[in-house]
C-alpha cells in the first residue's frame, strides 16, 4: 500500500530556533515529492524534488530528497511566528497522476 | 490572474441529502484534482481530471461520490445521500499539464448533521 509518513506530528519551538521536518514514503512508480505550507485552508506550494541529493532553497527554508532511503527533510532556520502552520508532504506517482499526502506536521513558533 | 475558486465556502446539510461542490480552476490549467481533508488529517486524493477525462475513479470513497468536468474548466463533485462521515473540507487544485506543482482553492467545508 502506498503511504507517506511525516514526523513529528507537532512541534513547538521559539523564534530563532531551527527545525527539521521529516517525510518518509513507500510508493510505487515515484515521480516527485512536494512540500506545502497550510496556514488556513489552501495549501501553498514550497518545493518540488525529483532528484536525490540536490538541495532546494528559498530564503530560510530548504529541502532535500534521498531516493535511496525514501525520505525528505524540510529545514527552517531562524524560525519566525509567521512560520506557524501545518507542513504537508506529498508524493506524486506515475499511476494516473495520483498524489499521496502525509498527515502533516503542525509547527507552532512562539515569540 | 485569478486563482482557484470553490463554492460554496461552507455547506451544512442534513444526512441523506445530496450536495454539489463546485471548482473553478486557474484558466489554462488542464489538470484538476479533488481532495478531502478530515479534521487534523492530511489530504485524501479523490480524483484527477486531465481535460474532461478522469482516467481513474478508484479514489472516490463510495458510489455515492461522483465528479465531472465540462469544457476543460469547471468541475463539480457530487455527493448523494450524504452521511455524517462525509463531513470534511473538500479541496480542489489545478495545475498545468505535466507539472506537479498544484494550486489549491480555499476549499468547501461540508458539515452533515
Overview of the molecule:
- The complex is a heterodimer of chains A (111) and B (113).
- In chain A, the strands form two sheets. In chain A, strands 2, 4, 5, 9, 10 and 11 form a six-stranded mixed sheet that branches. Chain A has a five-stranded antiparallel sheet with strand order 1-3-8-7-6, with no helix packed on it.
- In chain A, a hairpin with a 4-residue loop joins strand 7 and strand 8.
- Chain A is built from no helices and eleven strands.
- Chain A has strands at 3-7, 10-14, 19-26, 30-38, 44-49, 56-58, 61-66, 71-76, 85-93, 99-101, 105-110.
- Chain A has one domain: Immunoglobulins (Immunoglobulin-like).
- Chain A has 111 residues and is an all-beta fold.
- The model of chain A has no long low-confidence stretch (mean pLDDT 94).
- Helices cover 0% and strands 59% of the residues of chain A.
- Chain B has 113 residues and is mainly beta.
- Chain B has one domain: Sandwich (Immunoglobulin-like), CATH 2.60.40.10.
- Helices cover 0% and strands 47% of the residues of chain B.
- Chain B contains no helices and ten strands.
- In chain B, strands 2, 4, 5, 8, 9 and 10 form a six-stranded mixed sheet that branches. Chain B has a four-stranded antiparallel sheet with strand order 1-3-7-6, with no helix packed on it.
- In chain B, a hairpin with a 5-residue loop joins strand 6 and strand 7 (75-79).
- The relative contact order of chain B is 0.33.
- The chains are: A mainly beta (111), B mainly beta (113).
- Chain A binds chain B through residues 4, 6, 31-32, 34, 36, 40-45, 48, 88, 90, 92, 95-104, and chain B through 4, 31, 33, 35, 40-45, 48, 50, 55-56, 59, 89, 91, 100-107, 109.
Amino acid at each position: 500500500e502506498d503511504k507517506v509518513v511525516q514526523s513529528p506530528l507537532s512541534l513547538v519551538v521559539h523564534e530563532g530556533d531551527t527545525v527539521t521536518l521529516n517525510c518518509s514514503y513507500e510508493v510505487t512508480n515515484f515521480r516527485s515529492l512536494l512540500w506545502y505550507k497550510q496556514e488556513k485552508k489552501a495549501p501553498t506550494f514550497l518545493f518540488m524534488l525529483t532528484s536525490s541529493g540536490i538541495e532546494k532553497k528559498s530564503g530560510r527554508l530548504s529541502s532535500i530528497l534521498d531516493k535511496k532511503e525514501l525520505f525528505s527533510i524540510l529545514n527552517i532556520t531562524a524560525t519566525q511566528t509567521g512560520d506557524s502552520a501545518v507542513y504537508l508532504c506529498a508524493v506524486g506517482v506515475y499511476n494516473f497522476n495520483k498524489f499521496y499526502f502525509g498527515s502533516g506536521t503542525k509547527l507552532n513558533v512562539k515569540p | 490572474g485569478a486563482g482557484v475558486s470553490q463554492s460554496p465556502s461552507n455547506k451544512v446539510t442534513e444526512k441523506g441529502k445530496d450536495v454539489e461542490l463546485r471548482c473553478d480552476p486557474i484558466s489554462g490549467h488542464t489538470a484538476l484534482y479533488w481532495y478531502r481533508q478530515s479534521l487534523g488529517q492530511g489530504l485524501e486524493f479523490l480524483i484527477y481530471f486531465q481535460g474532461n477525462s478522469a482516467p481513474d475513479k478508484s479514489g472516490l470513497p463510495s458510489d455515492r461520490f461522483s465528479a465531472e468536468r465540462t469544457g476543460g474548466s469547471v468541475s463539480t463533485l457530487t455527493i448523494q445521500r450524504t452521511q455524517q462521515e462525509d463531513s470534511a473540507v473538500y479541496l480542489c487544485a489545478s495545475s498545468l499539464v505535466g507539472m506537479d506543482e498544484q494550486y489549491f482553492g480555499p476549499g468547501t467545508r461540508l458539515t452533515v448533521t
